[in-house]
Design goal:
- The complex is a heterodimer of chains A (247) and B (409).
- Chain A is built from seven helices and ten strands.
- Chain A is of the alpha/beta class and 247 residues long.
- In chain A, helix 3 runs parallel beside helix 5 and helix 5 runs parallel beside helix 6.
- In chain A, the strands form two sheets. Chain A has a six-stranded mixed beta sheet, sandwiched between helices. A four-stranded antiparallel beta sheet of chain A has the order 2-1-4-5, with helices on one face.
- Chain A has a single domain, classed as 3-Layer(aba) Sandwich (Rossmann fold).
- Chain A is 31% helix and 28% strand.
- Chain B folds into two domains: 189 residues, no CATH class; 167 residues, no CATH class.
- In chain B, helix 1 crosses helix 11, helix 9 crosses helix 11 and helix 9 runs parallel beside helix 12.
- By secondary structure, chain B is of the alpha+beta class.
- Classes of the chains: A alpha/beta (247), B alpha+beta (409).
- Chains A and B meet through helix 2 and helix 3 of A and helix 1, helix 10, helix 11 and helix 13 of B.
Chain lengths: 247, 409
C-alpha cells in the first residue's frame, strides 16, 4: 500500500533569544493511503508544530518528510505552496472562508492557484461537485455569513476536496461547533475515508479522536503512543453522512 | 504558457472582486487620483486657452508691428520708468518721414472716460491715434469711414466707435452721423470698427473709442506727450532694419550720447509674443507643479489604504497562501488592486477634468483648449503611481508567513 506520509527523525527547534526550544524531538511516523489518523496531545506537546510541518506550512529543522513519495523537507516557500495546493486539503478550526464570497467561489479558490490551468467552467463544475459531495446542494450561492457553523465547515471541506488531494489535514475541525454538528462533520470525514481518502485529524478531544481508525499521542515533541482502534466510533442514529459521500 | 496567462487572468479577477467588495472605500481611495488628474487637465486646458488667445491677439497685430513706448529699459541694472513721457508727435512724424523701412506710424494717447449718447452712457477707453492706425492694426471699419490727415491737423471732434461701444450706446444701430459726448465734449460719430472678438487676458478689444490724437490731447487730456507710438515696417523682413532706423533717429532727436541708456523702449510683435509666452510658461509650470503635488498625495493615499487593507486582510492572505497561493500571486493581486484603483481614478479624473474645463470655459467665458497629451500624461502618471505606491504594501503582503497570517485575529 502506498505511503502518504513518511517521516524519519523529524526535529523542529525554535530559537527564542538564547533559549532553544525543541518543539519536535525525533518523530517517526508512517501513514498509509486510506488511513484515518487522529493526532492527539495537550497544548505545548508539539502537536501544532507537527501539523504545520505535515501541512507544508513550515520546514523541519532536521529529519526527512516524504509526502506522497516526494521529499518536501527542503523545499522553499513557493515550492511548498505548490505542494500544499496539489497534495493537501486543509480544514481549519475557524473555517477560514473568505468573507463576502459565495460558497462556490470559496470552494473554487484552490483551483485559481493550481498548476493545472482550469477554465472557468471546469472550476465551477469541480466546485459544485465538491459542494454536493458534502451535502450543500442549494447553498452554493450563500456567503459564509448566511451559513451556519456546520455549513461553513462543510464548505471548507468541499474546498479541501476540490483539488483531489493526497490527504485532508484537519486542524481541530470541530473546535468551534456544538456536539451534534461535530458529529455531522465527523460523519462526513468518515464517509470520505470510506471512499478511500487519507485523513489526518489534529485534535485534543478524545471522543472526536474515537471517530478515526488510529490515534497517535504526541507529548514533549515525541510520539508517546500509537494505537489502532479496532471498533471506531460511529455517529449516533439519525446522523448520516450526506448520501453523495458514499458513491 | 496557456496556464500562466490563465492564472494571471484568475488573479486579476481576484483583485477586481476585492475592489467590488469595498466600493465606498475604493472610491475614497481613488479620490486623490481623481482630483489630481482632473487638476492637471483643467490647468493645462486653461493655460493653453490663455496662451492661445494671447497668441491670437498678438498675431492680429501683424508681423510688421512695432511698439515704441517711453521709459528707460535699464538704469544701473534696474528697470525704471520715470513717469514722464519723452515721446512727442514730432517724433512720430520724423519716424514716418526719415525711416525708409517704416511704412506706417501712428501716435497713441490713451484716456478713460464716460461716453454719453442720449439717455445711454458707457465707460470705456478712448484712444487718440493717427490716420495710419487702421493700416498698422489691420483693422477696418464695418460702417462709415475713418478720419484722415485733415481731421488730425485741425483737431476735428470726430470719433470711430468700437463694436461693443456702438452696441451699448446705439442698440438699434445707425450710430454713424450721431453725436456722442465724451467728458462733455460733443463728438460726431463717423464710423464703427469691425468686431475683433479676440481678447487678451479677458479684456475686450472692441470696448474702445478711437479719435484723432490731436483732438484727444487738446480736448480731453491737455497733455503734449504721447503714451506710445505704433509703427509698421514695410515688410516682415524689414522689422529689424526699421528698429535700427527708429532707434538711431530717436537717439539723435532725444540727444542721447552713444552708450547712454535710452529713454524709450521698442518691441516688435515677435518680442511681445516671446515675452508673453515666457510669462505663460512660468504660470503653467507653477500650476502644473501644484497639480503634480496633488497627484503625489493621491498616490500616498492609495499606499495608505493598501497598507491598511493588507493588515485587515492578513487572515485572507493566510488562507490564500495555505491553499497554494505563492508570494508572487499575492503580490500581483495587491499590485493589481492598486493599479486598478489608480487607473479607474485616472479615468474618472480625466472625465472630471474635461467636464470642469468645459464648464469653466462656458461660465467664465474663458478660452479652453483641452489637449489630448495632457489627458495621456495624467493617465500615465496615475498608472505609474499605482505601481509605485502599490508595490510596498503588495510586497509586505507577499512576505507574510502563512502560519502567522492564519493565526492573525
Amino acid at each position: 500500500m502506498a505511503r502518504v506520509i513518511e517521516i524519519h527523525e523529524l526535529t523542529k527547534v525554535y530559537t527564542m533569544g538564547e533559549v532553544e526550544v525543541r518543539a519536535l524531538d525525533g518523530v517517526d511516523l508512517v501513514v498509509d493511503e486510506g488511513d484515518f489518523v487522529a493526532v492527539m496531545g495537550p497544548s505545548g506537546s508539539g502537536k501544532s508544530t507537527l501539523m504545520n510541518i505535515l501541512g507544508c506550512l513550515d520546514r523541519p529543522t532536521g529529519g526527512k518528510y516524504l509526502l506522497d513519495g516526494v521529499d518536501v523537507s527542503e523545499l522553499d516557500r513557493d515550492a511548498r505552496a505548490v505542494i500544499r495546493n496539489a497534495k493537501i486539503g486543509f480544514v481549519f478550526q475557524s473555517f477560514n472562508l473568505l468573507a463576502r464570497t459565495s460558497a462556490v467561489e470559496n470552494t473554487e479558490l484552490p483551483l485559481l492557484y493550481g498548476e493545472l490551468g482550469w477554465s472557468r467552467e471546469e472550476r465551477r463544475k469541480a466546485a459544485l461537485d465538491s459542494l454536493h459531495r458534502v451535502g450543500l446542494k442549494g447553498r452554493e450561492g450563500n456567503q459564509p455569513s448566511q451559513l451556519s457553523g456546520g455549513q461553513q465547515q462543510r464548505v471548507a471541506i468541499a474546498r479541501a476536496l476540490v483539488t483531489n488531494p493526497a490527504m485532508v489535514l484537519a486542524d481541530e475541525p470541530t473546535g468551534n461547533l456544538d456536539s451534534r454538528t461535530s458529529e455531522e462533520i465527523m460523519a462526513i470525514f468518515q464517509g470520505l475515508n470510506d471512499d478511500g481518502k487519507t485523513i489526518v485529524l489534529i485534535t485534543h478531544e478524545p471522543d472526536i479522536a474515537q471517530y478515526s481508525k488510529r490515534i497517535v499521542h504526541v507529548k514533549d515533541g515525541r510520539i508517546q503512543h500509537d494505537e489502532r482502534i479496532e471498533q471506531h466510533r460511529v455517529p449516533p442514529r439519525g446522523i448520516e453522512p450526506p448520501v453523495a459521500v458514499k458513491r | 504558457m496557456r496556464n500562466s496567462v490563465q492564472r494571471l487572468g484568475n488573479i486579476t479577477v481576484v483583485g477586481l472582486k476585492a475592489i467590488a467588495r469595498n466600493k465606498m472605500r475604493s472610491f475614497l481611495t481613488m479620490l486623490g487620483i481623481v482630483i489630481g488628474v482632473g487638476c492637471v487637465i483643467v490647468v493645462v486646458a486653461i493655460g493653453n486657452g490663455a496662451s492661445q488667445s494671447i497668441q491670437n491677439t498678438i498675431n492680429s497685430l501683424g508681423s510688421n508691428f512695432l511698439m515704441i513706448f517711453p521709459g528707460a529699459s535699464t538704469q544701473g541694472g534696474a528697470r525704471i520708468f520715470t513717469g514722464s513721457s519723452t515721446l512727442t508727435a514730432e517724433d512720430a512724424e520724423a519716424i514716418k518721414s526719415d525711416c525708409p523701412a517704416v511704412a506706417y506710424v501712428s501716435p497713441v494717447v490713451r484716456t478713460n472716460g464716460q461716453v454719453v449718447a442720449g439717455e445711454l452712457n458707457w465707460g470705456t477707453q478712448i484712444f487718440g491715434v493717427g490716420p495710419d492706425w487702421p493700416f498698422i492694426r489691420a483693422w477696418n471699419n464695418s460702417d462709415g469711414s475713418f478720419f484722415g490727415d485733415s481731421d488730425v491737423k485741425s483737431a476735428t471732434k470726430v470719433c470711430v466707435l468700437g463694436a461693443t461701444v456702438a452696441e451699448n450706446l446705439f442698440p438699434q444701430g445707425g450710430s454713424v452721423g450721431q453725436i456722442v459726448r465724451i467728458k462733455n465734449v460733443p463728438f460726431k460719430v463717423i464710423g464703427v470698427l469691425e468686431r475683433k472678438g479676440g481678447n487678451m487676458m479677458g479684456s475686450d478689444q472692441d470696448d474702445q473709442v478711437v479719435a484723432p490724437y490731436t483732438t484727444v490731447m487738446k480736448r480731453l487730456q491737455g497733455q503734449s506727450k504721447l503714451n506710445m507710438i505704433y509703427a509698421a515696417a514695410s515688410s516682415a523682413d524689414g522689422v529689424s532694419d526699421a528698429q535700427q532706423q527708429i532707434e538711431g533717429l530717436l537717439r539723435q532727436r532725444h540727444r542721447i550720447a552713444p552708450g547712454a541708456d535710452l529713454d524709450f523702449q521698442m518691441r516688435s510683435q515677435e518680442e511681445i509674443a516671446a515675452a508673453s509666452q515666457q510669462q505663460m510658461t512660468i504660470l503653467r509650470t507653477l500650476l502644473l507643479s501644484i497639480a503634480a503635488v496633488s497627484l503625489f498625495i493621491g498616490g500616498i493615499g492609495i499606499m495608505n489604504i493598501m497598507l491598511v487593507s493588507v493588515t485587515e486582510r492578513t487572515r485572507e492572505i493566510g488562507i490564500r497562501m495555505a491553499i497554494g497561493a505563492k508570494g508572487r500571486h499575492v503580490l500581483l493581486q495587491f499590485l493589481f488592486e492598486a493599479i486598478t484603483l489608480s487607473i479607474v481614478g485616472g479615468i474618472l479624473g480625466a472625465a472630471l477634468g474635461v467636464g470642469a474645463s468645459t464648464l469653466a470655459g462656458k461660465l467664465l467665458n474663458w478660452p479652453i483648449v483641452i489637449s489630448t497629451w495632457s489627458i495621456g500624461v495624467a493617465f500615465g502618471v496615475a498608472a505609474a503611481i499605482g505601481v509605485f505606491f502599490g508595490f510596498y504594501p503588495a510586497r509586505k503582503a507577499a512576505r507574510l508567513d502563512p502560519i502567522d497570517a492564519l493565526r492573525y485575529e
